[in-house]
Amino acid sequence: MRVVPAVTDWEVPRIPLGEWFSELVGWLQDNLGDFFTAVSDGLESAVMSLADLLTWAPTWVMILLFALLALWLRGWKFGLAALIGFALLDGLNSYDSAMQTLSLVLLAGIVAVIIAVPLGILGARSDTASRMIKPVMDFLQTVPQFIYLIPAVIFFGIGVGPGVVATVMFALAPGVRLTELGIRQVDREMVEAGEAFGSSPARILTGIQIPLAMPSIMAGVNQIIMLSLSMVVIAGMVGTPGLGADVFEATTRLQLGAGFEYGVSVVILAIYLDRITASLSAKSAVSRARRLAGAA
Predict the structure, then answer these.
(1) From residue 250, how far is each of 111, 232, 247, 259 by CA, in Å?
(2) Predicted confidence (pLDDT) per residue in 204-256, tens digit
(3) Which distant-in-sequence residues (6+ apart) come within 8 Å of 227 by Cβ?
(4) Are 186 and 209 within 8 A, CB to CB?
(5) Which pLDDT tens digit goes with each residue over 169-199?
(6) pTM of the prediction?
(7) DSSP label of 2
(8) 83 Cβ partners below 8 Å, 6+ apart?
(9) Could you give the C-alpha distances from 128 to 92, 122, 124, in angstroms and in order?
């Protein structure tokens, strides 16, 4: 009788990915620790300066300025709503925290736009670059928000620095994608017309493609701002000041009333930022239509 040998179970050997990552982090901390500290200090200084700028005038003056901006961009209805909303922020004693959150969102949004728009332009003008950028953007969009805080805290410590860095990383992808999409959707005949008149590639980019793609680019800016606000609130867990820290404190202490008030404050700020950036996008669309009409 033939004996059949026993088949042993085969398992995939464990891949020490976590150990490799820990070694990489250790190497970066040992060799670039001073750089990370300088970046964190610079971000904290910039955020504090911007927050001081937003609170240097009396509260009622700043509320009127926010309302006038809303009136100019959206009309009297939104201007009145902004006036009531920011007055409510002051009534809830959340105005100073809201200005800290706004300064974080503005700084992170500006940095994200500065990075996203050139990357989107590069991806639109080079298929090779696009194929390299897309997987990175896919990764950034699929990573959970809390995961961004882990390397940010490791490299930049507790406070403003990790909050801004994590926010920029989280909000980057939509700006890159929509910038590339907008430039790729520019009518090829418009580009060929510019080439026929002897325009250089740089002139075509700045004079034709970017202006016509501006509505899509501004939609990306809108998404960057809104994602920045959501991430800044979560970054309150790592000591980032503002409404996020207030919400986290109220949550840990089970203060239901305070948590509700801070949540309402976040909603007011989110609606204001969304409508303002959407208005800028709409104005870009009107400008694009006028350019197309002029070209016709």
Answers:
(1) 30, 16, 5, 5
(2) 888 888 888 888 998 899 999 999 998 988 888 888 888 888 888 888 888 88
(3) 167, 170, 171, 174
(4) yes
(5) 999 999 999 999 999 888 888 888 888 888 8
(6) 0.85
(7) P
(8) 63, 64, 66, 67, 70
(9) 52, 9, 10
